[in-house]
Amino acid sequence: MAIPISIDKILNENTVEYARIEFKENWNPEPILHTLCAFANDIDNWGGGYIVVGVKEHKGVPVFPVTGIPTAALDRIQKDLLELCHKIKPLYTAVCEPVVYKGENLF
């Protein structure tokens, strides 16, 4: 299932991280699990949020050009994400979409 917003809008129109957007340069399961839990709790009822893996940030602002992630890592990351979601009770199902942005893979 595709995410309901384009990667261009996430990176270029919402240029600062806030409660609904997190930029992660690399796939690191522990901090991503923490962010997933925060999105799952959704105290403000915003409908979750977006984690963009493959984008370095500086003071909450995405750094361009994006770093991207290797194509070979995409399947492993999707498998890891599914496993992370099963650690959250009640079960949280993340919607994910690997995308290509300016020649680089993002997740």
Describe the structure in your own words.
With 107 residues, the protein is of the alpha+beta class. The protein has one domain (20-106). The chain is built from three helices and six strands; from the N terminus they run αβαβββαββ. The strands form three sheets. Strands 1-2 form a two-stranded parallel ribbon. The chain has a two-stranded antiparallel ribbon with strand order 3-4. 18% of the residues are buried. The model has no long low-confidence stretch (mean pLDDT 89).
Concise synopsis of the structure shown:
The chain is α+β, with helices and mostly antiparallel strands. The protein is 30% helix and 17% strand.
Strand share of the residues? 15-25%
Count of distinct strands: 6
Q: How big is the Rg?
A: 13 Å
- Report the end-to-end length measured between terminal Cα atoms: 13 Å
Largest sheet: 2 strands, parallel
Coarse shape: globular
Count of discrete alpha- or pi-helical segments spanning 4 or more residues: 3
Which residues form runs of ≥5 with pLDDT under 50?
Answer: none
- Helix percent band: 25-40%
Mean pLDDT across every amino acid position: 89
**What's the SSE pattern?**
HEHEEEHEE
Structural class, judged by helices and strands?
alpha+beta
Q: How would you write the strand order of the largest sheet? A: 1-2
Write down the domain tally.
1
